[in-house]
From TrEMBL:
The gene is cofH. This is 7,8-didemethyl-8-hydroxy-5-deazariboflavin synthase subunit CofH. It comes from Halomarina oriensis. Keywords: 4Fe-4S, Iron, Iron-sulfur, Metal-binding, S-adenosyl-L-methionine. GO terms for molecular function: 4 iron, 4 sulfur cluster binding; 7,8-didemethyl-8-hydroxy-5-deazariboflavin synthase activity; metal ion binding; transferase activity, transferring alkyl or aryl (other than methyl) groups. PROSITE patterns: RADICAL_SAM (PS51918).
Length: 460
């Protein structure tokens, strides 16, 4: 039987870590089926369907997917959850230069001398919102019934933890700092933005490890001090993005100016130590190989063993179309479907201490997103209402799914739709015979259906 292709022919990049093991696929599959804790070598054998040959064996792939689906059913049952949420990203200004990212705009384009009076930024596809802008956008969405607002942004040079941090950066001239007075729009401080978004009891999900590093730059503050201050300002949980691939030889290629693996882990541990829940992610399907992917899972599993704070794992398949990695000719595609399916399945089997696995329709689309619910996933992401990160990398699956669409799609694949809270501690099963369908868990939610106002939101 012909083997299916993988996206990056092994060996194209000279990495020290390579998908070679002393384990056999059969042994690894037997351990997975028995519910044994897998080793990195086991994971590599499952993810490659056997390292003895290049490409993916379709029959073995189905065996791995079936094992993952069985494990999902045992761990979390038949419900497929979704959250009523909003993405409110504050700014696209960022000079960190991650090669997989097209969300960012050079911060210089936002400086006052670059922006016509009252006009939009020099890079007119980007944006910076004031705290007042954020508050207005979030308040509107809360009144429409959302439960959570997620906010992840570029590392704007004027952004600082709080007023004291701003003063310290101004006094020492940096690092990566320019005063807000140089920009057409002042983003405020992280504390001001969080306080502005923490309206009416909405759940505030923000401040990735990379943003926390930005919020302590040039100081001796610990990550604990930063996250404790952010929690006081209204932060409820932390997105475990900026993870990308938690193996430094890969980070050195795709995001050399970003925090390293150790810093990411330290920030996440700190967030957990001050009582914040978090998600964890992997952004895969670019230059890395299967050994890197499983080593990444091992870092996440170990973090969860030590903190228990990770509420879900979120595979982010690299959206490659409009990114520097493609422009530089380093890659030409993202992950193949077979790789997406196996990554989800091996995540389920390897992360034996993380209960929830998310399939994102904005990255995979509805059809593959639903298929991945039979490969180990049990969550189908959220309504989000607005989305720039994927869209600006060339993603074309939209910015919104209504509760009615969730109920229709989930029941169509024979699963049980359930609205959830960010921390999964609240789950409300939705009866598909009891329309109309709207969110009910948010502070102002009364079951009124959400409508697609992404155009209106984009005008904000
Ligand atoms: C855009 S950043 C914004 C927050 C912050 N600047 C950071 O890097 O954590 C958030 C995450 O989006 C994901 N992302 C960015 N570009 C992507 C792409 N082209 N495909 C898939 N995920 C992407 C990355 O995992 C990244 O950590
Ligand atoms: N996977 C993606 C997400 N996931 C995060 C969820 O939207 C939600 O914030 C989290 O599950 C906590 O409840 N968000 C995106 O905007 N895009 C994705 O691809
Ligand atoms: N920021 C990520 C999505 C994400 C958001 C919050 C999370 O907790 C996890 C993932 C992206 O757009 O790709
Ligand atoms: S991934 Fe985050 S830090 Fe990296 S360039 Fe994009 S916005 Fe900036």
């Amino acid at each position: 039987m012909e083997r299916l292709p993988t996206n990056v022919p092994r060996g194209r990049f000279e990495f020290a870590h390579r998908p070679e093991t002393d384990q056999s696929f059969e042994n690894a599959l037997a351990k997975a089926r028995a519910g044994d804790r897998l080793t990195v070598d086991d994971g590599i054998e499952l993810l490659t369907t056997g390292t003895a040959f290049d490409g993916i064996d379709p029959r073995r792939k189905e065996q791995v997917l079936e094992a993952a689906d069985q494990r999902r059913a045992e761990v979390v049952g038949e419900a497929v959850t979704f959250v009523a949420n909003l993405n409110n990203n504050v700014t696209t200004a960022c000079n960190t230069g991650c090669l997989f990212c097209n969300f960012k705009d050079p911060a210089g384009g936002f400086e006052s001398d670059q922006v016509p009076d009252g006009g939009v930024a020099h890079t007119d596809r980007g944006f910076t919102k004031t705290p007042a802008d954020s508050r207005r956008i979030v308040r509107d969405a809360v009144r429409r019934g959302i439960y959570e607002v997620t906010s992840v942004s570029g590392l704007h040079p004027a952004l600082a933890l709080d007023a004291d941090h701003r003063e310290a950066l101004a006094a020492q001239g940096g690092p990566n700092y320019k005063p807000a007075s140089m920009y057409a729009t002042d983003p405020g401080t992280y504390v001001e933005q969080l306080a502005a978004m923490a309206v009416d009891g909405v759940h505030l999900h923000s401040m990735t490890p990379e943003e926390a590093a930005h919020a302590r730059r040039g100081t001796e503050k610990s990550y604990e001090q930063v996250y404790r201050r952010l929690k006081r300002a209204g932060l409820d949980s932390v997105p475990g993005t900026a993870a990308e691939i938690l193996v430094d030889e890969v980070r050195d290629v795709i995001c050399p100016q970003k925090i390293d693996t150790g810093e990411w882990v330290a920030a996440m541990e700190a967030a957990a130590s001050v009582g914040l829940d978090m998600t964890a992610t992997i952004m895969y399907g670019h230059v890395e190989n299967e050994a890197h992917r499983v080593q990444h899972l091992d870092v996440v599993r170990d973090l969860q063993d030590r903190t228990g704070a990770i509420t879900e794992f979120v595979p982010l398949s690299f959206v490659h179309h409009d990114t520097p990695l493609v422009e530089k000719g380093m890659v030409s595609t993202g992950a193949t479907q077979a790789e997406d399916e196996l990554l989800m399945a091996v995540s389920r089997l390897y992360l034996d201490n993380v209960e929830n696995l998310q399939s994102s329709w904005v990255k995979f689309g509805d059809e593959l997103g639903l298929k991945l619910l039979s490969c180990g996933a049990n969550d189908f992401m959220g309504t989000i209402l607005s989305e720039e990160i994927t869209k600006r990398a060339g993603g074309e699956f939209g910015e919104f799914r209504s509760v009615a669409e969730y109920v229709e799609m989930i029941t169509a694949v024979g699963r049980v739709p359930a609205e959830r809270s960010t921390d999964y501690r609240q789950r409300r099963v939705v009866d598909p015979d009891e329309g109309p369908f709207g969110p009910t868990l948010g502070p102002f939610a009364d079951g009124t259906p959400l409508v697609d106002r992404s155009a209106a939101l984009a005008d904000d």
